[in-house]
Amino acid sequence: MENKVCRVALIGRPNVGKSTLLNNILKYNLSIVTNVAQTTRDLIKGIYTDKNYQIIFYDTPGIHKGFNLLSERLNQKSYAAISEVDVILFLSEATGEIGKGDHFIIDKIKEINPEAKLIGILTKIDLVNDKNELDRKASDLKALGTETVLGVGLNLNLAYSDVIEELKKYANEEDFEYSEDEFTDVSQRFLAKEYIRLCAIEKLFQELPHSIAVEIDEFSEKEGKPYTIFATLYVKKQSQKGILIGKNASTIKEISINARKLMESAFQHGVYLKVNVKVSPDWVDDEKKIKEMGY
């Protein structure tokens, strides 16, 4: 049997479970997951490979109404992913309702890539006990134009296998784009940035999740020594800097320790991490700063 490849975009509103879906399929915490909307800010590729199939997933920022320049840039990343794939998984929470935002996204998908196969994914189905309710939501997704609807949820491993088997139907014969042991195209430097941001959001999710950005200033690898990582955490206001540092620098120390542990687990290597905090006023509307931070 010839090798087959399928390129798939994970699309939906913020916080519907795109990154959770990808992490469960890959069995690796590639994309950071929090309860805060718009956590994903980058276009992250996750690669699933078995004997004859390679499925390349594009985890995207949630499409949302733009309220600053950063929001516009994040939406553009998602639109770019839609244009590059064979299949679009449109994710919607089983516990929610189809709203104007969903209709907007579906219309955008059909406008950008009308040839792509559109599959509906109901997320968090473990939170819904009424099968009739799930059937109704699935019917709503089909009414939007999805060819089929699958459900995924916590501890439902077979459901993720079903997603893979469905996607194999749309794979095309071609050589694998990535080697069989690759599961992403992002670097350890990128993951370090994301782990720091994750730990900051988890610590301060009520105060300033959308004000936080991270820049890796140095990532040094020397044989026989821990990775040396210097990073800067940016906030928009001086008052937010005080919150992030905390009394006697207790908050930033806790964030740094938690991020270092995540890195050491993911990299299977010792890490020395130093995180500074700086104020960058209104960086979310600063074209130059947004580019410097990789968005």
UniProtKB/TrEMBL annotation:
Region (G5) location: 150-152
Keyword Chaperone: no
Alphabetized UniProt keyword annotations: Cell membrane, Cytoplasm, GTP-binding, Membrane, Nucleotide-binding, Ribosome biogenesis, RNA-binding, rRNA-binding
Pfam family, one: KH_2
GO cellular component: cytosol; plasma membrane
All copies of domain KH type-2, residue ranges: 204-281
Protein name stated in the entry: GTPase Era
Organism field: Metamycoplasma orale (Mycoplasma orale)
Taxonomic lineage of the native organism: Bacteria, Bacillati, Mycoplasmatota, Mycoplasmoidales, Metamycoplasmataceae
